[in-house]
Amino acid sequence: MSVQRLLLLASVVFATACGSNYESLEISRVSGASNASIGSERFVVPEGRVLVIEVRPLAGRQRKDHDVTDTLELRSVDPSIANVRPGIRADTWLFLGTKSGRTEFEVRVNGNVEEAIAIDVTDPNEEG
Amino acid sequence: MTTSFRTAAIALALTAAPACTGGPEPIVEETSGELGLGTFRWNCLTSADPTCGTGVFPALVARDGYFGLEFFPSDDLPSEIVFDSIQPVSPSRVTAATAFQGTGEGTISFVAWSRRSVIDFVTVSIVSVDRLTLSLQQESPPGESSCGFLYCVDIPGPPPDEGGDVALFAGGVADVQAMPYSIGTRLAGALSYEWESLSPDLLVVEPGRDRDARLTALSEGLARLAIRAGGHEEIVEVFIADLPPPRRTMSDEDSTSGSDSDSGSDSGSGSDTDSDTDESGSGSGTGTGTDSESGGESGDETTGGQR
Predict the structure, then answer these.
(1) How far is CA A93 from CA A83, B86, B292, in A?
(2) How far apart are CA A25 and CA A11, in angstroms?
(3) Which A residues in the span 21-80 are in contact with B, Cβ-Cβ below 8 Å?
(4) pLDDT tens across B100-155, in order?
(5) C-alpha dihedral, A115 to A118 to A119 to A121, nearest 10°
(6) Number of other residues whose CB lies within 10 A of the CB of residue A37
(7) Which of A33, A93, B34, B269 sits a CA distance of 20 to 30 A from B195?
(8) pTM value?
(9) Count of alpha carbons within 13 Å of B188, Cβ hemisphere only?
(10) β-pair type (B30-32, B38-43)
């Protein structure tokens, strides 16, 4: 299974708005549906399936120390379409394709929304 | 395998086995979660689910079939990780009341939850039944090749060839069992089965428990039998042959040797051998009768045991 990596550059918002050390996120696909995908503009998960990713926050070059008290959370805007929940392993998150449709998931650092990414839950019966 | 071999094998087992305090380990159907953090176990709710005893966690589940799942977290997990429940990712495709039921086709994942986190998940495919086969009901443990004292039948048998039929002797009775398939793969999940004789003047069918039914052949002819499960209907042709006339000159031994030739051929259901001249007992005596070679004739195709 190919590994998809995505570097999200949350730019200035992360570094200045809330004082966290996060400048970017590195997202790696771990496992899940073969026809699920991650992208800078949107994620895709088939209905009824799971996509497992690993999210690693990267500190900015200006900051040498990574503040372990910073919290990172991914949260779905509409869990009835796509649910996002943490896994047991550190930095692991699971996207659950509950019902076909489109919604977004928020990247929250220290409770503040730093980024919102679209997620499409596809109907397998409509796929080619 | 002959009767004598089985007797010897049993004797050997009895003498060689130590005094065991427990029985053999039950056969379970398990698979690791896709994250490697636990084990999922399949639960057959009734014997209508053909998965039980196979030792294989199923990949394909019949639409409308009922089933259960258990999860056993890995021993390596921290103690604070407590397993809470298993839920399907998409409730629209799988209902979850007292048991799971696949209501829509597709590939579905089931998630093992702790309180707020996901521990692990497993994935199965829910498909529609496209074939129902019949097999002679066996008394031996499921999942094993059975070469009992009466007949030899492979369990599970392969789906019959297109146009395969059941064959009975007139007046015969056969206990049969249905099996659901999709694209040649046996399907898991407990379905409800309906049976209907489309030739009531030739064949009577009495539904039994779960996947079982009893067929009674009334008179010679070609009967049709309908089996329905999982939204699929299978029409099976039942060839009913007339009983061969008894051989007047035979002794008792000889009268069974007519079936001996069958049992010799090893394929007729043993009940055939005895019931041959009587009433064709299990009704699968088609392989016998006048033609020992007919052992390969009809029942063979459909059921593997219908001889």
Answers:
(1) 10, 18, 66
(2) 10
(3) 31-33, 46-50, 52
(4) 999 989 999 999 999 889 999 999 999 999 999 988 774 333 333 333 223 333 33
(5) 160
(6) 17
(7) B269
(8) 0.71
(9) 25
(10) antiparallel
